[in-house]
Every structure is written in C-alpha cells, then in structure tokens.
Write a structure and sequence with these properties.
Layout (H helix, E strand, L loop, with lengths): L4 E8 L8 E8 L8 E7 L12 H5 L14 E4 L2 E4 L2 H19 L4 E4 L6 H15 L4 E2 L2 H4 L1 H10 L17 E5 L3 H4 L1 H12 L4 E4 L5 H5 L2 E3 L6 H14 L5 H7 E2 L1 H8 L4 H8 L3 H13 L3 E5 L1 H4 L4 H15 L8 E4 L6 H6 L6 E2 L3 E2 L3 H11 L14 H9 L5 E5 L3 H4 L3 H10 L2 E6 L11 E4 L8 E4 L4 E5 L12 H11 L9 H11 L8 H7 L2 E2 L23 E2 L18 E6 L16 H4 L5 E3 L1 H7 L6 E6 L2 E9 L7 E5 L27 E7 L1
Parallel strand pairs: 6-7, 6-16, 8-9, 8-12, 9-10, 11-22, 12-13, 16-17, 17-18, 23-27, 24-26
Antiparallel strand pairs: 1-2, 2-3, 4-5, 4-18, 14-15, 19-20, 20-21, 23-28, 25-26, 25-28
Helix pairs in contact: 3-21, 3-22, 5-15, 9-12, 9-13, 9-15, 12-13, 18-20
The structure holds iron/sulfur cluster (SF4).
The site of iron/sulfur cluster has 14 residues, from α1 and α7.
Length: about 700
C-alpha cells in the first residue's frame, strides 16, 4: 500500500556460523495498534563476510519471526496444563522455587543451559546468573554437542580453540582439505567460496562417507568409513615424516613434542590405515604429499571429526598435520573448525561452559575468580572454584536426584542430545524446570514455567561468527506479544532473586564484557557500528582485531604435537545391528527445526528420509520410497528410505531436524573422555521394512 512506511535494518543471520549480514525489510502501517512487521530480506552488498550472497535459510527462512505459534505470554504449568500468566507471577514462581532449592540443596543443585542462538551479551549474563546468583558452574550449551572437542584439542595444540584464519583466506590457499564437513548444506555461503576456489583450479580433497555436493565438485573425494578419521590423519602424518616432507625449521623453531608424534605414527602406515578407512594406500600417500608440498594449505572440518568418542584426539591429529608442515599462522594456511550455529563461538567465548569464565579464564584460578567477584559486587568465596557439570553430566545428576532444577535458555536437548528417551526421563525427574524460548519446543513442553523470548529481530546485541568476527544484531521490530529478550529475562530473574544487575541495555553488558574479557577488551557496540565487525582477540580500543591467529607465536607459546592413537567407534556393527548410522544436517532446515520448520522452507522440505546405498537395499529387499523401521539399541523410528550411490555401502544417514523421525532417540551417548562430546556420528543400527 502506498502509505506503508518501509525501512531497512542491518543485522546478522540467526542460522549458521558463517555470519552473513543482511538488511531486514520492515513495514510500518499507519494504523493505530498495528505492529511493525518484517516482510523480507535484502542483500547487503557491503557485508564483510558474504557481500550480496545469502543462502536459502537467510533469504527465505525468517517468517518464523511472526509465526502464530510464537510464545506471547509467560506460561505456568498447573495440574499438568500450561496456563498463561503475567510476567510478575511467572518471575515470582521461578524466584520462589529457585530460592527454596538454593537454601535446601545449594547452588550445585542447579543446571543451566545457555544458547548458541542467544547473543554474546545474553550468554554473558546467563554465565553471570549461574555463577554469581545461583552459585554454580553447572553451565553448558550445545557446543558440548558440536565443537567441545575443538575447544579442548586446539587449545592444547595452539592455545586457543577457534578457527585460525578468516573465511576470505579460502581464496588465498593453494590446497584445500575438507574433512567431516557437509559444507554446502551446513555453511552454504562459506561453501560457495570453496566452490569458487575449486572453479579457479585450487585443488580440494574432500574426505567424507557421503558424496556431498562439495565432494562431487572437489578434485578428489575420499569416501572414508565412519570412524576411520584418526587412522587416516595419523597415516597422513606417517607419510609426511617417512618421506621427509615436514617443515624442519618450523618444527624446530615453533613447536614442541615432535619426537612423541614421530614415535606414535611410526606404525601408522597407509597400508594399516587402508583397512580401517577403506581408502587405498596410494591415495593416502598422494593426499599427504599434496598437503605437505603446497605453499599455502588449509584444513576445514566440522562434526564428522568432532562428534566422535575420539573427537579431541581427532582435532589434535589435524593440528599435528598443520604443525608438521608449517601450514598455520600464514595467509591461506590454517586449521579451520567451522562452527555450527550462528553464535556457538560467542557462547563459548562468553563462558557458557562449566570450566571457564568469559574469555576462557579458568574458574579454578583464584585471581580470575577475584576479578569477576569484585566486578559483580561479590566476595570471591561466593564464586565456586570447582568446574561444573557438562550437559550430559547434568542429565545423569538429574536422574539420580542430585540436580533439582534447570534453567534452559533457547536449547532443545530433547531433540538435539543423544539417546533422547534418557534425556526426557532426566528432565522429568527434576523438581523444577524453567524454559526460555520463542516457541513451545519439545523441551519447553516438559517445563514448569516457560518464559517467552524475543527472536533475533527484536533485540540488540552481537553474534560472533565462525571466524571470530563479532558483529552487530539490531532490533528491527518491537517484541512480539509480551516476549522479552533473553538479556532482559536474565536481568529480571536476578532482580526477582534479590541480586539485581545494574545493566540498562546490551551496550552496557558489552562494556562489562570488555572490562573483564581480555580478548574482547577493545570491542564496543559503538565501535562495531562504525567499523562493521571485529575479529577477536581485540585487546584495546585502538586494536584492529586479529583475523589470523598464531602468526608469530602460538597463543600458548610453542605449538604442541600430541601423540594420539586410533580407537574404533564405541559401537561396531554386529549380527543384530549390521549397519552404521550417521547423522547430520540438510540445507533447508536447521538444528531441531524450531525456527526453520515454521517458515516457507517447510513446504520445500517437509519430510525426512533415510539415505541408503542400493546394494544394502537390494540385500534387504527394499525399493526407493519404502517406509522402514530404523532401530538401534536405544530405540526405533520410522521413515521412508531413499536409495543413493552417494553414501558408502554399510552406512545409512539421516538428519536430526524432524521430531517425527527423531534420530537422536537412536544415537549413542558414549562420550569423548576429554571434551565429553557424544559420538553422534556413528552407531550400529538395523533397517527393516515396515
Ligand atoms: Fe545464514 Fe549461514 Fe545461510 Fe549465511 S550461509 S545466510 S549465515 S544460514
């Protein structure tokens, strides 16, 4: 209508960690009481990461903002049914129950899940609320399910657990190695830069059990058996050393522990690895040579590497390759874990982890505790010194009655965590569960109180993308219904518990973050508004940020080699469960589908299926489209089968986006002993026609 007023608001995508910027197109109609509405998305040609490019989720996946199922008022469960109530009553109920549990059982009776979907400022406040108000380090978030092994593995090898190079460096590499990453579906705009590099002739080797779109476009696709990663990575190191391809000067000057690695991989010949990976010895040798001989080589990986019981060791084995060859700390040379959700990097940075305050400052360090306590107006003794529980450990503690209450902000463990029957049972054992979300997710349905949150379009703040770039999130419209931004909800909860935070808005929260977090010390909303984005570490207000890590020295001083050894997956196929089940993501949906399944994308991709190789289907007497029962030792789901030669025989694959075929009812909760990340990528399964 000609009298409608339109405006654009620059913000950051709420889906994947690529961190694309775009303009939300907002319409205001001059009719009293009619709210503003987000009606579309326009490319921002000057966006630092993506330019004018957006994927289908950023472009067409935002109508969840105004979806009729958005939570508009607080809900309190009475006699098993949710009843809408006022904020005042909901906050009072939470405060009363939290205070009773705190005085009866102490702070460690609480568990808190922060959110990779929430802003940095919100995650920071959730961390402050857990530690400073509830008195517990039992805080975690979904990084435990995706890159906890990266944080642990790269921190041990380099001193910081993040992507070492900017996305723009893809164009500067002359060899690309992508392992365990379905980049074209999980990080589509970033994948476009890989595809462009391949198009320009840059060699790219993709290692994956499935022939993904990127694998099909790559110079070479190595179809690895699920679980063979560490054998392959050690064999690559073996070849590099055996053929004298290592960078001796780099190893001498900038690393330590080479002899330990050399001894560990001496027996890891390509012939040994071939039987564990399904990759021919000569292909392994050639891949090692190409990586080592390249002038500037980069490795990219995601959850095919990290979601294993050897996840931390897999990451260390990748770091070993970079340290052996000196492919780190240089333009176009680095180790690049692609972070999954839009702000999973930021949630880690902001201390949504059980062992560290913001900026990875250890909770066990008395000086660090004293610093935070002084700023928060507490005695140092009020901040717990012992590392808290991971999400998996919280659920175990709930099952045995040690954890009494949880606050879950914007996460959906009922669909995202392994062995979901176990997750539901644990959450039902709690005395009190509070969920903060924009929809009544599968997890929120189990809560006693549900607090309605704002979407990204209704609040101010920042997200930190996969390349450590802190970018602004800007409010485009008023909160939908009576929803409140997560930061406001946490401030209100602290006040209701008698521990008010003196913070007026997200800009003030960022100022507090900068004061207490050395790597964010130079970052402010004003500066981000002026400069567009800053990569941490940014230690001072006149520091330009650090797009490339470890240039002259590693964060830990010298790079550390690690001797890591192959272990088979926790569950091997057997007579009863003869196939391997692997899980992942699809282009048109995101995570547990809470947002993407309430958009136009649902019409494009309304149903999940199971990918299976035709040889396995023939053996089972299946044809394309047959409905099958997919079972593991933990449960069974039904879904149609789709036959494809793009998956290795013996392995089947589906996504975890669909509650109707909730694959995490089947996945294995066996964990990596270091990072406590579950082995979501491999378990034994059987398939039978329904
Ligand atoms: Fe959003 Fe990721 Fe797509 Fe970019 S690539 S538009 S950040 S989902």
């Amino acid at each position: 209508r000609p009298w409608d007023v339109r405006r654009k608001v620059r913000t950051t995508c709420p889906y994947c960690g690529t961190g694309c910027n775009f303009d939300l197109e907002v319409i205001r109609r001059p009719i009293a009481g009619e709210p503003e509405e987000v009606i579309g998305v326009a490319s921002a040609v000057d966006a630092p990461v993506n330019g004018r490019h957006l994927c289908v989720k950023g472009r067409f996946g935002l109508s969840f903002i105004h979806h009729p199922e958005r939570l508009r008022r607080p809900l309190v469960k009475k006699e098993g049914r949710f009843v809408e109530t006022s904020w005042e009553e909901a906050l009072n109920v939470v405060a009363e129950r939290f205070q009773a549990i705190q005085s009866d059982c102490g702070g460690d009776a609480f568990g808190v899940l922060a959110s990779a979907k929430a802003t940095n400022e919100e995650n920071y406040l959730i961390n402050r609320f857990a530690r400073g108000v509830l008195g517990t380090n039992n805080i975690d978030h979904c990084a435990r399910l995706c890159h906890a092994s990266t944080v642990a593995g790269l921190a041990a090898a380099f001193g910081s657990g993040a992507m070492t190079n900017p996305i723009a460096d893809i164009a500067k590499s002359d060899f690309l190695l992508v392992i365990g990453s379905n980049t074209t579906e999980s990080h589509p705009v970033l994948a476009q830069k890989l595809l462009q590099a391949i198009g320009r002739g840059t060699p790219c080797v993709v290692i994956d059990p499935r022939k993904t779109e990127l694998a099909a476009a790559a110079t070479e696709h190595l179809a690895i058996r699920p679980g063979g990663d560490l054998a392959l990575l050690n064999a690559l190191a073996h070849v590099i050393i055996a053929e004298g391809l290592q960078d001796r000067r780099f190893i001498e000057e900038r690393t330590e522990g080479f002899e330990e690695l050399q001894a560990a991989v001496v027996a890891c010949s390509p012939e040994w690895a071939a039987s564990l990976t399904g990759i021919a010895p000569e292909v392994i040798r050639e891949t090692a040579r190409r990586y080592a001989r390249a002038e500037r080589a980069s490795i990219f990986y995601t959850m095919g590497i990290t979601q294993k019981r050897t996840g931390t060791h897999n990451v260390m084995a990748i770091a070993n390759l970079a340290l052996l060859t000196g492919h780190i700390g240089k333009e176009g040379s680095g180790v690049n874990p692609l972070r999954g959700q839009n702000n999973v990097q930021g949630a880690c940075d902001m201390g949504a982890l059980p062992n560290v305050f913001p900026g990875y400052q250890p909770v066990g360090d008395a000086a660090v505790r004293a610093k935070f306590a002084a700023d928060w107006g507490l005695d140092t003794a009020e901040l717990p010194a012992k590392a808290g529980l991971t999400v998996g450990e919280m659920l175990e503690a709930a099952l045995v009655g040690e954890l009494k209450a949880m606050l879950i902000v914007g996460e959906n463990p009922v669909l995202s965590d392994p062995d979901s029957a176990h997750v539901v049972e644990a959450l039902q054992r709690l005395d009190f569960l509070v969920a903060v979300d924009i929809f009544l997710s599968e997890t929120a349905q189990l809560a006693d109180v549900v607090l309605p949150a704002c979407s990204f379009a209704e609040k101010e703040g920042t997200f930190t993308n996969t390349e450590r770039r802190v970018q602004r999130v800007r409010q485009a419209i008023d909160p939908v219904g009576q929803s409140r931004p997560d930061w406001r909800i946490v401030v209100d909860l602290a006040a209701a518990l008698g521990r008010p935070f003196d913070l007026a808005d997200p800009a003030a929260v960022m100022a507090e973050i900068a004061r207490l977090t050395p790597s964010y010390a130079g970052i402010s909303h004003d500066r981000l508004d002026r400069e567009g984005g800053l990569c941490w570490p940014c230690p001072a207000t006149d520091h330009p940020g650090t797009p490339r890590l470890h240039v002259e020295r590693f964060t830990r001083g010298k790079g550390r080699f690690h001797a890591v050894h192959y272990l088979p997956p926790a569950e091997a196929p057997d007579e009863e469960y003869p196939l391997v089940l692997s899980t992942g993501r699809r282009l048109f949906h995101y995570h547990t589908g809470t947002m993407s399944r309430r958009t136009e994308l649902e019409a494009i991709y309304p149903e999940e299926h199971l990918e299976m190789h035709p040889d396995n289907a023939a053996h089972l007497g299946l044809t394309d489209g047959d409905w099958v029962r997919l079972s593991t030792r933990r449960g069974a789901i039904s879904l149609p089968v789709r036959l494809t030669e793009g998956i290795i025989a013996g392995t089947v694959f589906t996504s975890f986006h669909f509650s109707e075929a909730a694959v995490n009812a089947l996945t294995n909760s066996a964990v990596d002993p270091v990072a406590k990340i579950p082995e979501l990528k491999v378990c034994a399964c059987s398939v039978e026609i329904v």
